[in-house]
Each structure stands twice: as structure tokens, then as C-alpha cells.
Amino acid sequence: MAANALDAELDLDAYWMPFSHNRYYKQSAEHRSNRLLARAEGSYYWTTEGNKLYDALSGLWCCGLGHRHPKLVEAVKKQLDVLDYGTAFQMGTPGVFKLAERIAEAAPAGFEHVFFCNSGSEAVDTALKMALAYHRARGEAHRTRFIGREKGYHGVGFGGISVGGMVANRKMFAAGMLQGVDHLPHTHNLKEMAFSRGEPDYGTHLADELERLVALHDASTIAAVIVEPMQGSAGVIVPPKGYLKRLRELCSKHGILLIFDEVITGFGRMGKPFAAQHWDVTPDLITFAKGVNNGLVPMGGVIATKQIYDTFMTGPEHMVEFFHGYTYSGHALAVAAAHAALDVIAEEDIYQRVNSLSRSLEETVHGLKGEANIIDIRNCQLAAAVELAPIEGKPGLRAIRVFEEALKRGVLFRFTGDIIAMGPTFISTPDELSRMTEVLRDSIRAAG
Ligand code: PXG
């Protein structure tokens, strides 16, 4: 192991790391080997040991355009010379109005209004509030129930964990969760769909479970259904063919709003601005974050249809219409970075590149089929996952070992349970994807 003076001089105790095994990380320099990041550029990080890591998850799904893209860095630096923070309530900046216009333009027809916040979790809370308030404003205040999905991830706010379906994220906080939430079944079924390329053939009928929930609760009590079009955090769970269309039909039939949580799928990864366009299914609200400005400055938001926005625009004109917002909604630095990101997406033909790179990703990851301990390989545009057989009695351990072996070999993967997830940068080359896959192969073998 290379000498790591920076590691040696740190007191690690004070920092409570998010979603991390704090004790394991802090226990020994060996456990932290290649896990202190010093620098980044393009598709790579450099660790404090000076080792180079290919970033196989684009940060945490957010840096698709590559780290420290010169145009984005420049835009933020320039903004700092002009305006730092501009009061968000009852005030605005030209930049934030222009950004909303550009985002609405990129969204499917009918989406005309953008509300800004600072993260995916806040975006989800915002969308849920919009749904409740929308129904109330229309005289349907009885529509209070939300339907999420098992294995869904919608961030960590109380709204998000309530509609989410990650058991570990829910069980400790049960006392604080929203009332009246139900869940669709997840669509992850290895028996029926293991090693599917792209969307699995099996599972469309699982959308019909919404009918069952409607029959149970009555449509008049349901405000919205929220799903990730492609489930990222649960380990790249790809929607079955026709599944999202079916959900849309059922929501429309019953007057239920459909929310697409596009925090991961928005702004490039699906080879279109939004997954809604990739699957040609139009929801009523779209949440976004991450890719909107390449993760450079925290930003999230919700895109609403004209119909939803207009419903709020009643009452005396001098009054606030939606009692919701954040100090940093539309922060000038985040806005500057987002404008630059949208420019780069257009200038570098990112959607076309993602579509073409996605084919390379599919080819290369499915080439791992047949390796010992791999029980599934799946892919969805520029996202993929390899699911490993758990070590008996020690779920999750095999993936940690693979993760550590891969770090030694210069690739930073993401693991969740026994799943290795990949969300390469949009600027990666097919060669880099092949190398990433070969490192995964070697790491799985080495991990045993
Ligand atoms: N919705 C979705 C669909 C997400 O993927 C959030 C909301 C929450 O976003 P914030 O910005 O509040 O973290 C997310 C976040 C992973 C991984 O390993 C995924 C996320 C975050 C960190 C890791 O897949 N998604």
C-alpha cells in the first residue's frame, strides 16, 4: 500500500459519515485504503495515496458530465464575482427564471413550471406536498393517501421514507412516518427475469396491483403514486416492458397523480432529458436533482404540469399560493452550474452519446455471465448492476469484498446489499467500460 500521510494525520472521530459503516471505516488504515478522495477530474478520482480510480457511479449518480468540467467550474467562478446568494422568497434572479424555462422546455409537453430545492429528498417532499395541496385546491381534500413501491428509494425525508420501500431506511423511524401510505409490489424477480437485457419481459402485470390497492382503499382517498421509472438505489431494477404505461393508464382512470422520481434518471442517464421521454410515459410531476448541474452545487426540484400549477393560482393575487420553499431554493451558484450543465449536454451531444455508450455497457456487462457467484446481470440505458450470491449467513459481505478488491484495481463501484451497481459517466469510452467490467470480473474472482 502506498504511504498515506494525509490519512495518518486525520482524527476521524468527529465526522459522522452518511449511510456508511463508520466503525469499519475508522477502524484501520487498511479498511480505508483508497477511500479518502483527494482530487477528481473527468471520469476519475485520485485518492490521498495518489492512486487513480475510475468512477463507475458518476459520484453518486450525479456527475455524468465528468468531474470538474471546465465549463461548469468557470460558470460557478464567474457567478461568484457577481452575486453569491440572492434572497429566494418574494425575490428572484434572472438566472433562476431562465433556468426554469430551460428545464420546462427539456421536459415533456405540458410541463411548464419548475420549483427548486436542494436535494432529491427535498424534491420528493415538495412533490408530495404539491399533490396533496393540488387535490385540496380542487375540492378533493379526501385524496390524502400516497402509494409508493417496495424497494423504492425517494430520499430520507419523512415523506420519502414513508413512500419508499427500503426496509432499513424505514424500520428505525416508523414512529415518524406518514399515515395512510401503501406500496405496490416491487418488480425484482430473479426467477423470472435474471440476465434480462434491458427491460424484462416479465412483470407488466405487477402494475395491475394498483387496481387492488384502489379497490382496497377507494380511489377517492388516493392522492398520488410515486415511483422511480428505473429504480437506482435498490440496485438498478429495470421496469418490465409496458409496466410504466400501465401505471399511467390506471392513475388516469382513477384521478390519481403519477409522480416520476427522476433524481437519477433525469438529465442524461436515460439518453433523453427524462425517463418519461425514454419510455414515452408522461407523469404529472417530475422530481429531479443530481444531474441537473452535475452534482456541482446541491440542487433539486419538481417540474409540474400547467394544469397543476394553474390549480394553485387562485385567491387574492398578493397572497402566497404555495406555502413551501427553502432558503437555498434556486441558489445562484447552483443555477449557474445548471445553466452550464445544460449547455454542455447540448454542445457535447450527451443524449446521443449516452444512447450509444449504453449499448457498449450492455455488451460488456452481460459478458460477465457465467462467472461464479453472479446470479443476475441487468442494464437500463447507462445503468447496470451485477447481483452476487450472498455468502451464507453473511448477506452483503461478498459485495463489500468485491468493492474492496476493485478499489485495489482502480475502480470505485457502488454496492448495495450484494449488488454491484454501475452508472458510468456519460463521457466514458467503450474501452473504459470494458476495463471497468474486467476489473469487476477479477474482483469477483479475488473476493471468492
Ligand atoms: N430519489 C431518488 C430516486 C434517488 O435516487 C433521492 C431521491 C434522494 O436524493 P438526495 O439528494 O436527497 O440524496 C435519490 C438519491 C445509490 C445512491 O447508491 C442513490 C441515491 C443517493 C445516494 C446513493 O444508488 N439516490
From TrEMBL:
Obligatory cofactor(s): pyridoxal 5'-phosphate
GO biological process per UniProt: biotin biosynthetic process
Molecular function per GO: adenosylmethionine-8-amino-7-oxononanoate transaminase activity; pyridoxal phosphate binding
UniProt keyword annotations, A-Z: Aminotransferase, Pyridoxal phosphate, Pyruvate, Transferase
SUPFAM superfamilies tied to this protein: PLP-dependent transferases
Domain of life: Bacteria
Pfam families reported in the protein's UniProt record: Aminotran_3 (PF00202)
Keyword Disulfide bond part of the UniProt annotation: no
Family from the record: Belongs to the class-III pyridoxal-phosphate-dependent aminotransferase family.
PANTHER family to which the protein is assigned, alphabetical: ADENOSYLMETHIONINE-8-AMINO-7-OXONONANOATE AMINOTRANSFERASE, BETA-ALANINE--PYRUVATE AMINOTRANSFERASE
Protein's name in the database: Beta-alanine--pyruvate transaminase
